[in-house]
Amino acid sequence: MSFRVSIADVAREAGVSRQTVSRALNQKSEISDATLQRVLAVIDRLDYRPSTIARGLATRHTRTIGLIVPDIANAFFADIGRGADDLVHPAGYSLLLRNTTEDPDRETDLLRSLEDRSVDGVLVCSSRLSDDDLAQLVARYDAAVLINRVLPGVGSVCVDDAYGAALRVAHLLRSARRRIGLLTGARMSHSGRERERGYCEALIEAGMPVDPALMVRCASPDIEHGYQAALQLLAMQREIDSLVCYNDLVATGALRACAELGRRVPDDIAVTGADDILLAGLVTPALTTVRSDRQAIGAAAARMLLDQLNGAANGCQSLIIQPELIIRASAP
Questions:
Q1: Is 123 helix (H, G, I), strand (E, B) or coil?
Q2: I need a surface site. Which of 147, 179, 253, 268 has the fewest CB within 10 A?
């Protein structure tokens, strides 16, 4: 059986009370230096580690931060988690990752569950909840930061998705593409709405019509649903010569659909993605996409959250990150 050293074991070994051990751990001045050193020596010898749960109950701080993402399998969110963890770990916090599987009801349950676990703060990435529901849930936390979502009075770090979509449309127009289709995100996706807005505004700015018949919504932003959406759109609109896809996973599904339909990429049709995850450079042809530093996004959001926990005035700012166009073989 495993044996965990308790505060009572330390007190017995050091010949002091448990309260004295607690004072030593918290560097209180009520005990003498000799007693402090004796207790610390026993703690070191027994390799005693205070219970995070017990300390959290006593201090109302658990040194944990919740991170909620919509799809743990998407490398975009994995990189954000890596950036956040690299920032909070040296500050003495642990990151508790939760996956909503793109389900708003599950997201609600997870936000309530993290609150029940008394996490010190929460990072919510690409929330699928309504503004009202999300605002009510994050208001229950001492600290909260949103990633790729904006709410009044809540700190946020967002990629400029509209700008990223406009970059791709402008590139396709410069490449003499004139029938540009859009595989957009789910209705509940803030990023999907922003990317759709950027697509439309770029066409209007170029004097091109915005044709709803060239747009199909993906039920979920993954490879399989990208494949299905591309099959549907290309079957209805055979003259399409290019695609702006919600993300790189959807674009990868679109590449599969094009191959199945005998549409050569990029000769017959150009395909663009978003996020520049590792997969984007590995598929054939490699994807033209837009890139943002996901680890930097995660780190910026985590830094903002720690600022809130430390009472800093800049903990509720809104940070906008502009992506850059990465041109590869799928849309040269």
A1: strand
A2: 268
